[in-house]
Amino acid sequence: MRLLTLPLFAVSWIDRLGFGLNGKQSTMVVEGPVAEAQLRLFYVTCWVTLVIFIVVASVLAYATIRFKARTEADEHAEPPEQGHGNPLVEVGLIGASVLALVIIAVPTLKYIWYDYDVPAESKANAYEVTATGYQWWFQFQYPSEQITGSGPLITANELVIPAGRPVHVNLRSVDVMHSFWVPKLAGKVDMIPNRGNFLWLQADHPGYFWGQCAEFCGDSHALMRFRVIALSPRDFQDWLAQQMSPARELSPSSLRPKAQFASLEYHDFAENAPGISGKYEGDNGISPLDQWKQQQFPNKGEDPELIARGKALFVTKTCAGCHTIRQADGKGPMGVTGPNLTHVGARSTIAGGFLDNTPEYMRRWIHNPGVVKPGNKMWVLGYEVNHIALTPEDEVALVAYLQSLK
Ligand code: CUA
Question: Are 38 and 166 members of one domain?
Fold first, then answer.
């Protein structure tokens, strides 16, 4: 089967011509067995149809050139006597079509079975997660990681998985139909309201992968993205331990006076088109995975007073109504409408995977979520209904608090 696939050098050569075959969401350069099965099937179909194309196009070209009218007399000539079929040609064509279909059908059926669920021999080793689609972000639950008094571990935007191990992903939706797609690993399978669905995937090596909702689901469907981060077994255990712990707390001695913030430069982000900063593109010499690992550590120069102010604002500005930040005392914000933010500072993206998680982008996001992701609930049901207005000082304090949640 490997002979059938285009060699990697050919893919990157075509890529250099500007066809983007090896982009972040490429299905041509894959990193796991499920996507690989899908790629091979694509190549089988591709080669079979290429052969059909060459045969049909050759016969057509031959007939066109060989029998074209060459003189004035040819053009006005009587049409030649019409044939009424040639049994040999007809049976031959039927036979060739059946053969082509069988060549495509055999691997198709084989891979439908293979891609459907984790192979029986690896089932015991499979890791279980539940992905839930919301307009417009993904929630990830880890049913095997139960937190006392709080239920399963819950994250958003980023599905962190152990590399080299099959992962069984239960697919759910709380509102409309979404579709779960990580092109380099597996896809696409729909997340259907009121109906259980699932897929499996596996990342062969640690890596940082781009995912995307692949079913139109409303205004900001195109901005409904996520990441899959595959970690070595040890890194994965470290990550789980960090995620299972309650939100980081930094206790300040006192709050600073508000005048502290007067010198801040104010940007009206609403007037700027949103965009991504490209921190995870890997073109700064650091791999996206390493960049993600750096994100797990506390930021330098944290200001406990500012963070405490942000923490208080998180409640008074009604953020707590929709988001959970699981505190050690069990009394933190417990909203369930929006993403769980207990460790939001450690994620590489915010806003449904659309913006890189930098202080600047987070401030842009909370300044006017409606501009970044049109129609989203945080804007429509939060800011607009509750008339939430944040001063630049509020924004900076909230960002400092959220960024401290590693
Ligand atoms: Cu969710 Cu498109």
Answer: no
- The verdict on residue 1 lying in a domain is no
Atom of ligand 1 nearest to the CA of 221: 2
Q: What is the pLDDT of residue 262?
A: 36
Cis amide linkage into residue 239, ω under 30° from 0:
no
Domain of residue 294: give its range.
252-404
- The predicted model scores a pTM of 0.86
Would strands 186-191 and 225-231 be described as parallel, antiparallel, or unpaired? Answer: unpaired
Query: Is 20 part of any domain?
Result: no
Do you know the residue count of the chain? 406
Instruction: Return the ligand 1 atom nearest residue 135 CA.
Output: 1
Per-residue confidence (pLDDT) for residue 348, from 0 to 100: 92
Local structure of residue 256 (DSSP, 8 states): P
Q: How far is the CA of 286 from the centre of ligand 1 (A)?
A: 30
Contact 311, 130 (CB under 8 A): no
pLDDT band at 157, cuts 50/70/90?
Answer: very high
Q: Ligand 1: which residue has its CA nearest to atom 1?
A: 178
Work out the average pLDDT over 212-232: 94
Residue 121 lies in a domain: no
H or E element, residue 190: strand 186-191
Task: Choose one of 202, 234, 266: the last residue of a domain.
Answer: 234
CATH code (residue 38): 1.10.287
Residues 363-376: tens digit of each pLDDT: 989 998 998 899 99
Stretch 9-26: mean pLDDT, rounded?
A: 78
Among the three residues 203, 234, 265, which one is the final residue of a domain in this structure?
234
**CA 390–ligand 1 middle distance (angstroms):** 29
For residue 278, name the pLDDT band (cuts at 50, 70, 90): low
Specify whether 340 is located in the same domain as 394. Answer: yes
How many domains is the chain partitioned into structurally?
A: 3
| Chain segment 161-176, per-residue pLDDT in tens | 999 999 999 999 999 9
Do 260 and 382 sit in the same domain of this protein? yes
- Which pairing describes strands 178-182 and 151-156: parallel, antiparallel, or unpaired? unpaired
The answer on 358 and 261 residing in a single domain is yes
Protein residues whose CB sits closer than 6 Å to any atom of ligand 1: 133, 136, 178, 213, 215-217, 221, 224
Distance of CA 359 to the CA centre of its chain: 22
